[in-house]
Amino acid sequence: MTRGQVRRRLTVSWWQYLGAAVAPLLVLGWAFGGSQALIPTVTMAVFIVGVATMFLSLRRFHAYKHALIATEKALNSDAEPAAWNKLAAVRRRGMLFACLPAWVSALSVFVGLETVPQILLLISSLVLLYLYRIPRQLG
After folding, report:
1. What tens digit of pLDDT does each residue of 83-125 get?
2. Percent above pLDDT 90 for the chain
3. CB neighbours (10 Å) of residue 137?
4. Residue 57: Cβ within 10 Å count
5. To 5 degrees, how large is the angle CA 22–CA 60–CA 103?
6. Which helix (H) or strand (E) holds 6?
7. Domain boundaries along the sequence of the chain
8. Considering only CA atoms, which of 125, 92, 112 is closest in space to residue 13?
9. CA 98 to mean position of chain CA atoms
10. What's the CA angle centered on 81, arms 134 and 14, to 5 degrees?
11. Cβ neighbours of residue 137 under 8 Å, at least 6 residues apart?
12. Whole-angstrom distance, CA of residue 67 vs CA of residue 83
């Protein structure tokens, strides 16, 4: 597989994770947004849990940075395909953790969290996902 094909595959993967982060909130908000909150007393706790999930991705991002550096060092060598595979695996796991705040936001529809905190959690996931884009220097 060529470097361009790998980069395209990683770009498509990034867009898929972006959709996986945004879609649940949109769907659940549309389907259940106007319904009665199941447990309205835990809205602040749910928001705090959502914010706390951002910090779970710190270790994953650290590993991603190291995988990026290793991939850059392996360019134009025999180790390049293995480095790209390792980068993809580390990045996939990191993006899963980056989606957590948005998923907590989607689940918060059931407890009656207001729209602004839901959007803040979604934006935090979007920012974290943006950090997992492959830099242009790596192509």
Report:
1. 999 999 999 999 999 999 999 999 999 998 899 999 999 999 9
2. 75
3. 8
4. 25
5. 25
6. helix 3-32
7. 3-138
8. 92
9. 3
10. 30
11. 72
12. 7
